[in-house]
């Protein structure tokens, strides 16, 4: 949904067949103010390197607090729009960039969401997405904190292109990617907080390979760019593995960050490649939409 009012002098849509995007992969400290200050500086650096769309990692303001059940963590939440979106909006307008940011949204007392905002290059809110798939695993106790999203899957028109945002656990579900791509998203951004536990050390490489592979598959199946940005560092028993990456519509790995350090990943995406890919691999044309009704069922009898 595009909330800009061109009649009041807002900037028109700029068609950019070649678009530089930036992913901000960071370590998180305990103080949210410090995280915000450092992240804003990294965004400025990414913009100085030519990035027009910049995506932050999941819940970038804080350490990953979902590792236990603690009601004090609800104090980290804030309204959306709110004070953090104001800071992000000011920077987006100043640098003429699109910003994607994942926040802990306080909707009402007792109702909280894991929410991603899309801020357009004029500083206005282009839209927001509330995380739909909520995990519940050891040290990822998100069902305690987050109400499942109720805004559905969306594509947001921005000055530089149309994008979709899905958050972390959403990245494993092909239905989410497909429904977002069908609305015209050219790039799927996945703000992420994923890592391995000490007990899973032997499986860490396999887990990370599966994480990357399934998302590159979404790029192929839908003919879109996919950009996943993950945090790094050890927080409690979880080591976040970084490895933020961008995939082209053919599933090719365009660029990938390391697994231990903060990084700014800048990648130029040729949006014209979407047309080329879909003409060569017309998966959207050949879908049997008349045969997929059972996908709405939880389970099918054997």
Structure write-up:
The chain has 302 residues and is an alpha+beta fold. The protein has a single domain, classed as Carbon-nitrogen hydrolase (Nitrilase/N-carbamoyl-D-aminoacid amidohydrolase), CATH 3.60.110.10. The chain has 6 helices and 17 strands. The longest helix has 19 residues. The N terminus is likely disordered.
Secondary-structure topology with pairs:
Blueprint lengths: L17 E8 L6 H17 L4 E4 L26 H13 L2 E11 L2 E9 L5 E6 L5 E2 L2 E2 L14 E3 L2 E5 L8 H8 L5 E6 L2 E3 L6 H19 L2 E6 L1 E4 L2 E4 L3 E3 L5 E4 L6 E8 L1 H9 L2 H4 L16
What radius of gyration results from the CA coordinates? 18 Å
- State the end-to-end distance: 41 Å
Helix content: 10-25%
Query: Quick one: CATH superfamily?
Result: Carbon-nitrogen hydrolase
**CATH architecture descriptor:** 4-Layer Sandwich
Question: Which strand order spans the largest sheet, edge to edge or round the barrel?
Answer: 5-4-3-2-1-17
Helix and strand element order? EHEHEEEEEEEHEEHEEEEEEHH
